[in-house]
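User: Hey, my collaborator sent me this sequence without any context and asked if I could get a structure. I don't really work with proteins. Can you help?
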Amino acid sequence: MATKIRRSRSRHSGQQRSTTLRVVAGVLALMMVGSLAFVVVGSAGSGSDGHATTPVLPVPDNCPAEDKSDAPRLAFTSRPTWCLAPGVSYSAVFDTTEGEIRVTLDKSRTPETVNNFVVLTRYGYYDGTMLFRFDPSIDIIQGGAPTTNDWSDQGPGYTIPDEGGQYLSTTSGQLLGPFNYEPGDLVMARSAGPNSSGAQFFFATGPLTSLLDAQGSYIVFGQADAAGTEVLRSMMDLYEVDETSPYGGGPIRDVFVRSVTIETG
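Assistant: No problem. I've predicted the 3D structure and written it out in structure-token form, which is a compact way to encode the shape of the chain:
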């Protein structure tokens, strides 16, 4: 999955400028190891004239029950149908063994990602799962792997498209995206290739997650409130080095997501 960090910013008005700066920085860094070429591989949220566009969203259909009565379901043959209602805001409440984390989901910038998370949540996909990777070098805590509770998890059986801005691919295969990262962010994990997010996620718990700004390809789709961000910081304080761990260490006790609940407003 990840290996990435940031500074304060406006996710919307500063998007174009931050993408430009990241591309320049990427060119300067990669020139040291060889020649570089960029190919635009994806762009969301703007039309051919450069102005923001409003996606045409389908009517919700064939969606899981809001009360999770269709749960559990962990395997799918295709990515979810559209299940978000127009004019409705969405939040996710993580009930963890270390405290509650309440996250406002960014339906405006990342509707496909939010829809995916809401559908999986209502199928009980994340209930009873472990937050299995703690990485203080980039201040992240990763979860969302119900089958294996590690990063080898097979996932839900599909991936979702990248969104939230322009993505650039280098000749070396690196993907550069439009995102910056700050404490409290809820972010999709992914592989190196485009359109590779599925179900795994990570939380940004501190300032070192901004180290991932140079890549920017991990989709930020929610932000925890102040209390939830403090819970995340406290979780990271549980970390200890463990040379037997595939991650180099972990929390002194297992940390679980008892359940995730979607609230609307």
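In plain terms: Helices lie at 15-30, 111-122, 226-236. You can pass these tokens on to your collaborator as they are.
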